């Protein structure tokens, strides 16, 4: 797909508006001619019919509302694509020529394959930016006992050094070239053809280096192919284009001036100059070990800008800030900007310079986070990965449109963050005598969504950059997809009350809040809940055939037609509309489970455990329940079809038949018959066999007095009865755990 979105035509925008109007008109006409008319024609309706009619009207209204929000966001994206003008390359070169601010790229990683992390680090390392620093935040257990796990961890730790060593050679050459040219033009700013040819030779060398690297890369799948073609060769092609311009200038009589020569030379040095490192928070007992990505990021961000002294205690190594004349063991540099990047995501070549340039425009002084919502890698080998990728590309468009209405949400795969903004929303706690700083909330497993609301409450805004500059992997099988989608479905309802509080604060400040923003944000956080329950109602409830009307179908038709058009625009098929519908049906129990987890958290007040999406070469087994329920949907739809045919209920029969076919096809394509048997059998075995429980440690009062004295623990804790396990349990009760 192209980096810059095609400019929508006037006709396309006109039809987008017509789709919105048609959806509203058909929905209103349905309520008037069907629901209201039924009550008018039935002077004394019984209780069952009344509740059925009201319930059906509510379900149709909520589903139509979600469809309408899709169309509204879609129209907003068209407006943004139409007005977007790309910043010229020369303006970027001028802005960053003497740039002094830095950016720190944070790559949180847990149990990732080494080659996946490597590609991500390379895509970040080849960003053109002055003072670029990349830190791989490893969240694996630092001292694994399994030899294979240790081997993978050591290989991942070595990535930073390996990439830095490879880049050191071209970086050294181009840094020396910059110094030579600065000396060359001191007192003599006249550029000659020899100067231009000398710069052209550097650009040729840079392109050659990248092309040689691309030739040596091993390509195993479509993601590797994208990495080679778009990340490495994409940058090489851009440098070749600059080389063409320089060679043409050298042949003519009109040369770039001295400032341009130096700026173009600086660009090469910035592309290949980077500092890489890795950090493991679990090596330090004073940092949070909470098992989620947010606290992995928070732990490192909390260390930035300070010199630290390491100390050894009975709990393990701890970090304390160096005070006075104390020399720290290490210092974590501070930067004005942060870039968070998931370990399975890739950035295109000028992601950093374009997004930071946006943040530094005067009108964007209160923009806290900007990003390009990630797109999917095309050419996936599995059907489920392709249909999940299609839905990802639709989400990219919707997030772009939401920015038009000031309803942007931070999507955590990648983002450039103004560090000053997250310092406004930081929460500081003291746990076990150590300060724990929380910048990105971890109360829910969709931490980026809640942080978006927190930033808005402090007067900050978020903006999505209207280009495609980032890509992220989609789960390759049904089992790993369940983990991801169940996590996405959990938390929106918990965050919604915080959004209503934000609205009250903004209105109190006399800030204008558009209804389009309110509706889009509410739909984003709550639509999974009402859509899931609504779909269950339509599938399972034997509603009166009089409630069905062609206008329900007509109200939904603009949504499906628009989605098909958007899929085709994003490089997919129009017919993927039906595949996505079946895809959502098999994911119905997954979404319901995520929503119910939100209700559980509301009642219990405890955080839901964060479960990361497994990304491994082998297939991930799906829980048996999520495999069985889609088959039950097919069976119940066929039963409904049989019943409706006997009662000559044509409309309901067609709907039931369509659901049975769509779900059955989705089972075959996305789960697989044999995989279903295997996953159900594994689920049965897991139910029958129980792991042997380890014996509990003796209570503190029953500790054998003759046991060896843990003198370090006594001096540290001040109580012999305290041990590592009790401390862990206590900290978990506090929200921040240390394991």
Description:
By secondary structure, this protein is of the alpha/beta class. 58% of the residues lie in helices and 10% in strands. The chain contains 25 helices and 15 strands. The protein has a seven-stranded mixed sheet with strand order 3-2-1-7-11-9-14, with helices on both faces. Strands 5-4-6 form a three-stranded antiparallel sheet. Strands 8-15-10 form a three-stranded mixed sheet. Helix 7 packs parallel to helix 9 (258-272), helix 16 (492-508) packs antiparallel against helix 17 (515-540) and helix 19 (576-586) packs across helix 22 (650-671). The radius of gyration is 29 Å and the shape is globular. The two termini are 44 Å apart. Residues 338-563 form the Glycosyltransferase 2-like domain. Its main location: membrane.
Descriptive labels:
single chain; about 750 residues; alpha/beta; seven-stranded mixed sheet; three-stranded antiparallel sheet; globular; disordered C terminus; transferase; Glycosyltransferase; transmembrane helix; glycosyltransferase; transmembrane
How do the strands and helices of this protein lay out in sequence?
Layout: H1 10-41, H2 47-83, H3 89-96, E1 103-109, H4 114-125, E2 132-138, H5 147-157, H6 159-184, H7 193-216, H8 222-251, H9 258-272, E3 275-280, H10 293-301, E4 306-313, E5 316-321, E6 330-332, E7 337-341, E8 345-347, H11 351-359, E9 367-371, E10 375-376, H12 383-404, E11 414-418, H13 419-424, E12 427-431, E13 434-438, H14 447-457, E14 461-464, E15 470-472, H15 478-488, H16 492-508, H17 515-540, H18 550-569, H19 576-586, H20 588-604, H21 624-646, H22 650-671, H23 673-688, H24 711-717, H25 724-733
Parallel strand pairs: 1-2, 1-7, 2-3, 9-14, 10-15
Antiparallel strand pairs: 4-5, 4-6, 7-11, 8-15, 9-11, 12-13
Pfam families: Glyco_trans_2_3
Keywords: Glycosyltransferase, Membrane, Transferase, Transmembrane, Transmembrane helix
Transmembrane segments: 12-33, 53-73, 518-541, 547-565, 577-596, 624-642, 654-674
